[in-house]
Automatic annotation (TrEMBL):
This is RING-type domain-containing protein. It comes from Adineta steineri. Keywords: Metal-binding, Zinc, Zinc-finger. The keyword ATP-binding does not apply. PROSITE patterns: ZF_RING_2. It holds the Pfam family zf-C3HC4. InterPro entries: Znf_C3HC4_RING-type (IPR018957), Znf_RING (IPR001841), Znf_RING/FYVE/PHD (IPR013083). Residues 27-66 form the RING-type domain. One of its GO terms (molecular function) is zinc ion binding.
């Protein structure tokens, strides 16, 4: 907000109590007391800033006093200093304001002075600003906004346009709208979460191939107790060279895929993989396995969470040809493999029977469960 003064301050408004000679403080355009003065850089004559702006807009670009091109500078400090000693009567004295203020404080007071006129936005009546507060409380036409339903109405419309029923209906409508919006937002978030999860899981998948285990080229070896974050029970592994040398007729030989790991894991009885530490969970994406000695060997894979069975899948394995078994089991902590049945593959009659060659396990490290999704009810 800017000052209401459109030009200098008339000399009658200078309070009698001040003993300052004001003759030198006159604006040479409006002939009143300088108000927010600026000065000509050349001749240093001060003018009211409003007077000067009007002068420059209407006439030329020259100073009204020295006739040189007007370049503005700050009002000389001695003028500002004398002005600051003046006491000025409020512009709204005629309306009843009794304030007499230091020159510097005048602007702020006059912007806020309660004795200026204000127009009621409802009934359009002009009144003193200080009276408007009381008027507003009773004016029938003043626009009001309901805090609950946000409806705008005039006071005299309260019984027609803003009844309790209307207010409640409006609130209900707003709530429904908000509900819809947040519901939409949540659905969007869930979709994003799913996408992120999908992206992330493809990055975070670990494929266990047994490649980096100590070489089992000379002897069959037991899996280390803990390997790749899992505890392996009743599972051993062998090197391709050992398979060729000692079990040349078995399906092990062909279960080494070209360019893949030189180790395969195997088991001939119920075997277990559980996460370490046990309170964690993991996702089993898939495994690759085949039968080592039998045709029609059945493998039952069971997943547990806190000792409760959560998934199960049975599959007939191929002899010597690893197949990928897709599982996509999430949020589990233990997997049990149980080989069963089948008949000896031709030439494998002397083999140990229901043995499984496990060539790969694909693990998803990110254990995002369904409870990570926001539900809405
Ligand atoms: Zn002036
Ligand atoms: Zn000048
Ligand atoms: Zn006042
Ligand atoms: Zn009014
Ligand atoms: Zn309302």
């Amino acid at each position: 907000m800017t000052s209401i003064q459109q030009k200098g301050i008339s000399s009658e408004r200078i309070s009698q109590s001040t003993s300052v000679n004001v003759d030198d403080l006159e604006c040479s355009i409006c002939r009143d007391l300088l108000w927010k003065p600026v000065a000509c850089q050349k001749c240093e004559t001060p003018f009211c800033s409003t007077c000067m702006n009007r002068w420059l807009a209407n006439r030329t670009i020259t100073c009204p006093t020295c006739c040189n091109t007007y370049i503005e500078r700050k009002c000389p400090p001695f003028v500002t200093k004398v002005l600051s000693h003046l006491q000025i009567i409020c512009f709204y004295q005629a309306n009843g304001c009794q304030e007499i203020l230091p020159y510097e404080a005048l602007d702020k007071h006059e912007i806020e002075c309660g004795y200026q006129f204000a127009k009621c936005p409802g009934c359009q009546l002009e009144m003193l600003k200080k009276d408007f507060v009381t008027h507003k409380k009773s004016c029938e036409l003043v626009p009001m906004t309901c805090r609950d339903c946000k409806l705008m109405y005039k006071r005299n419309e309260a019984t027609t346009k803003h009844t309790e029923k209307i207010c409640l209906r409006k609130q209900l409508k707003r709530l429904k709208h908000e509900y819809k919006e947040s519901r939409g937002a949540i659905q969007k978030l869930n979709i994003e979460l799913r996408e992120i999860r999908h992206l992330y899981s493809s990055i975070k998948q670990t494929v266990i191939t047994f490649e980096d285990l100590p070489s089992a080229a000379k002897n069959l070896l037991h899996m280390p107790n803990v390997y790749k974050g899992f505890r392996w029970t009743k599972i051993s592994y062998m090197h391709e060279l050992l398979a060729i040398k000692k079990y040349s007729k078995s399906g092990y030989v062909s279960s080494f895929l070209p360019g893949d790991s030189l180790h395969v894991a195997f088991f001939g009885e119920t075997a277990t993989i559980s996460i370490e530490p046990p309170n964690e969970t993991f996702s089993l994406v898939s495994i690759m396995a085949c039968a080592a000695w039998n045709d029609d060997l059945e493998l039952t894979i069971t997943a547990y969470r806190k000792s409760i069975e959560v998934n199960q899948h049975s599959v007939i394995l191929l002899f010597g040809r690893p197949q990928r078994i897709m599982l996509q089991w999430k949020n589990i902590d233990k997997v049990v493999f149980k080989p069963f049945g089948g008949t000896a593959h031709p030439g494998c009659d002397e083999g140990p029977g229901a043995h499984v060659s496990l060539t790969q396990l694909t693990i998803d490290d990110l254990s995002l469960s369904s409870s990570d999704f926001l539900t809405f009810d």
